[in-house]
Structures are given as structure tokens and as C-alpha cells.
Design brief:
176 residues, alpha+beta, Cytidine Deaminase, domain 2, eight-stranded mixed β-sheet, 32% strand
Length: 176
């Protein structure tokens, strides 16, 4: 999906027929860290959000960002700084829970590396989120992509924006 400053939020279709709303603070913060210059290192952090009890839909509402003790270079980012854990604790106090991770790639259209895939499958075995998915976002220089890992089946698949009508308004999701 194209990285645009005009996106206030994006609705993505989940494999179970529900929807995940990627809210504007997530998009704005990730946009700040895009590797659009050769000198910019890879960046990343945690994603937090919540499950809507009535609908089963998910909202991703905030992300942490790189801190001084994180490991960063042009093609690598590792969360090491304890401030990410503080971010998660603060979010939990506000009923927002760990939902996954994000990072950047120095590619126009990001493609997960073998390291990404291995980390993601390991994450599915270990991490607990506020819903039945773990979300993985990679932001390239021109586009960003998002994958949803099903905690129960262990499957990871890319998810896509919900369809819009001619007026630009999202159409009602029909389910799986």
C-alpha cells in the first residue's frame, strides 16, 4: 500500500472475515522512520491496539519507535532498549495491548527477508496478543505491507486493504 500523508486510517481485511483498522498515529509514526535516504538506518518497534469485543474487529492504535539502545544499521533493527517495555506497560494501563511488530526496509516495495520470516514464525509460537493474530508491518520507501499471523494455526499471510466504493468510502466487509 502506498505511503501517503493523507491517510487518516486504513481498513484491512483479516483472514477470518473481520477487519483491522490501522489508525493514523500508527501510519504517521512509521512514516517518520522510512528509509528514504541512504544514511537512514532500519527502524522499528512494537504495535499496540485492541480487539472490539462486540464486532471481533481489531484496531492498531500506536507504535513504539527506535530508542538509543536498539541495534540499528542500514539492513538490521533489533529491539533492545527497555523503553519499548515501558511503552507496552503504559499502553496496557490504557487498555491497549501488544499486537505485533513493525520495521522498515530500504526497498521501495518491502519484501520480508528470511530473517523476518524466521522471526515471525518464532514470534507466533511465543507471543501473546490482544487478539488471535500477530501483526507484522514492513515499511519500504514507497509502500508498506502488513502480514497477519494466526496464533492458532501458525499461518502467516499478507492482508490487503478493504475495497472502497467510487466515493472512496470503505464498503461493508462481507466476511470470509
Amino acid at each position: 500500500m502506498e505511503i501517503q500523508s493523507s491517510n487518516s486510517y486504513v481498513k484491512m481485511s483479516l483472514p477470518n472475515g473481520k477487519v483491522v483498522d490501522v489508525l493514523s498515529p500508527v501510519l504517521a509514526e512509521i512514516r517518520r522512520w522510512v528509509q528514504d535516504e541512504p544514511s537512514k538506518p532500519e527502524s522499528g518497534g512494537f504495535i499496540v491496539g485492541y480487539l472490539h469485543k462486540g464486532t471481533g474487529n481489531v484496531s492498531l492504535e500506536a507504535v513504539s519507535h527506535p530508542y538509543p539502545s536498539d541495534i540499528r544499521n542500514r539492513i538490521r533493527f533489533d529491539i533492545r532498549d527497555s523503553k519499548h517495555q515501558h511503552f507496552l506497560r503504559r499502553a496496557k494501563r490504557n487498555q491497549s495491548y501488544y499486537m505485533g511488530v513493525w520495521h522498515t526496509h530500504p526497498q521501495e516495495i518491502p519484501v520480508p527477508s528470511e530473517i523476518d520470516w524466521n522471526d515471525w514464525y518464532e514470534t507466533l509460537k511465543i507471543d501473546q496478543t490482544g487478539c488471535s493474530y500477530v501483526f507484522f508491518i514492513i515499511a519500504g520507501t514507497m509502500e508498506w505491507r502488513i502480514w497477519a499471523g494466526d496464533i492458532h494455526s501458525g499461518n502467516i499471510q499478507e492482508i490487503h486493504e478493504c475495497p472502497k466504493g467510487d466515493d472512496g468510502v470503505y464498503l461493508k466487509n462481507k466476511g470470509p
